[in-house]
Amino acid sequence: MEDARFTMVGGDLDRLLGVMDIDDVSDIETLLIILFNRPISVEPLEWVDDDDGSLEVTVWAGDTGHASGRGFPMTVVDLVRAGASVVASSARPMATTSTRPMAKRVS
Fold first, then answer.
1. Helix (H, G, I), strand (E, B) or coil at 75
2. Going by CATH, does the domain composed of 21-90 fall within 1.10.3470?
3. What share of the chain is helix, strand, coil (3-state, %, to 5)?
4. Which of 76, 70, 66 is nearest to 23 (CA)?
5. How far is CA 84 from each of CA 18, 51, 56, 66, 77, rounded to the nearest angstrom?
6. Residues 6+ apart with CB under 8 A from 12
7. What's this model's pTM, rounded to 2 decimal places?
8. Helix axes 25-36 and 76-90, enclosed angle (nearest 10)
9. Nearest CA to 89 among 55, 61, 56, 48?
10. Residue 87, Cβ density class (10 Å: 0-12 exposed, 13-18 middle, ≥19 buried)
11. What is the rounded distance in angstroms from the CA atom of residue 10 to the CA atom of residue 39?
12. Cβ neighbours for 71, distance < 8 A, ≥ 6 positions apart
């Protein structure tokens, strides 16, 4: 069975966000995992004393996690931007060498 939330291609951001059905924190977690192609966990912060609630977004790199707390309410776009800032701050420099052999140039 296909899930329309993940198979529909939106022509623009408004159309895409219009078809998203977010019922639970796990839906937000799935969205961020797909957007950033990284293991990400999203959990409610229950120890924060606020009426609206807060979320903790953690980007995982092996056994290490980079966490960021976010207050609610917020739009999906704001959540994606917040996730992007956590991903950007946790990014490591890419290795400049490769173990893959170089392709030969054919003239």
1. coil
2. no
3. 35, 20, 45
4. 76
5. 21, 26, 14, 12, 10
6. none
7. 0.51
8. 50
9. 61
10. buried
11. 24
12. 50, 52, 53, 54
Cross-strand partners of 56: 43, 69
Give the tens place of pLDDT for each residue, 91-105: 654 333 333 333 333
Helices (H) and strands (E) in the chain, counts: 4, 3
Q: How many Å apart are CA 76 and CA 99, to the nearest integer?
A: 39
The per-residue pLDDT for range 45-93, each reduced to its tens digit, is: 776 565 556 778 888 887 888 777 777 666 777 777 777 777 777 665 4
